[in-house]
Design goal:
Number of strands: 8
Structural class: alpha+beta
Number of helices: 13
Order of helices and strands: HHHHHHHHHHEEEEHEEEHEH
Radius of gyration: 25 Å
Strand content: 15-25%
Low-confidence stretches: none
Length: 321
């Protein structure tokens, strides 16, 4: 959960996740809707899907026994080198180093590495150095100490060098080049994306349509249909014969996913037809939609973006009333 997500957001989510899914079997057999709800707000939903797939593999192929080594953990969906190393060293006392951003910073300063530390070749240099440093006794404690050292002492800015237990070995300190080690990690430029959220609404029954997305940013999540702005005119035309009332909510929504900045407005269509009469092919959405009462729809939404859209819908009707 803490990959690309702050601990302040993770801690309450983790507590509820463990309360509802206390065992690997519970996770392997949980409903997708439950998983989406427990992960809602954390983003990067592929992590949740991988977590469930990993649990299923452990239950079905490993007879509910957890892997016992670094190489075995790497076979679990969603479990990369860092996670596998953390589990293997801390839980199984295996001599394998964890490398996260904090550890990269510590080692790059120890070796005065001011370039090429984020590439695969640069990581290999750091990995090789750690292989010599890590002890055979209590490797998990070593890994946690290195990560903690980077987080609290060998900080990105204003490092506390006088308190560092490795200061006598630090080449960056000796050469007065701490600020250059490591170099800034290359960042991908943000891409701005304009979308429209489609709220298909039966006002008479106060139900809204949800769909399980099959492509795009929020693939495999349940929420309102999202339409690229370029496709919006065609969708509005397809809906025009089905809806006497079609309008745009006044306020925009915005959301950030990885390196994409998403913004747009919600398009509301009050339908006069049944779901079976909708022109699915023209709307370019998988069928069927799930029609849900607005009073309970918040519990069905699995992403922060959808919750923002629904809040705009609620605020509009509270204000208009």
């Amino acid at each position: 959960m803490s990959q690309q997500t702050t601990l302040s957001a993770v801690v309450p989510k983790f507590a509820e996740f463990i309360r509802q899914l206390p065992t690997v079997y519970d996770l392997a057999t949980c409903e997708e809707e439950t998983l989406h709800q427990l992960w809602s707000g954390l983003g990067y939903y592929a992590r949740a899907r991988n977590l469930k797939q990993g649990a299923q593999l452990i239950v079905e192929q490993l007879h509910s026994y957890f892997p016992q080594s670094y190489q075995e953990w790497l076979k679990i969906p969603g479990c990369g080198p860092y996670t596998a190393a953390a589990i293997a060293s801390i839980c199984h006392n295996e001599k394998v180093a964890c490398i996260d951003g904090n550890v990269v910073r510590v080692v790059s300063r120890l070796l005065a590495l001011s370039q090429d530390v984020w590439s695969q070749s640069g990581r290999s240099v750091i990995q090789a150095h750690l292989a010599h440093m890590i002890p055979g006794d209590r490797p998990g404690d070593f890994n946690q100490a290195m990560m903690e050292l980077g987080a609290t002492v060998c900080r990105k800015t204003k490092p506390l060098c006088t308190l560092c237990p490795l200061q006598q070995h630090c080449q960056a300190l000796a050469r007065n080049c701490i600020a250059e080690c490591p170099p800034k990690k290359p960042r991908r430029d943000f891409v701005d994306v304009e979308l429209a959220a489609l709220l298909l609404w039966h006002k008479s029954t106060d139900t809204l349509a949800l769909v399980e997305r099959e492509v795009g940013f929020l693939c495999k999540t349940i929420g309102f249909p999202l339409i690229p702005e370029i496709d919006r005119p065609a969708v509005e035309k397809a809906l025009s014969s089905l809806s006497k009332l079609q309008f745009e909510l006044p306020n925009k929504f915005s959301h950030t996913i990885t390196h994409h900045r998403i913004s747009g407005k919600a398009l509301v269509a009050n339908l006069d037809v049944t779901a079976d009469s909708l022109p699915w092919q023209e709307l370019s959405f998988p069928q069927p939609f799930h029609w849900v009462k607005s009073s309970v729809i918040a519990a069905k939404l699995s992403t922060a973006l959808d919750n923002k859209v629904f809040k705009l819908f609620q605020e509009y009707y509270i204000t208009s009333e």
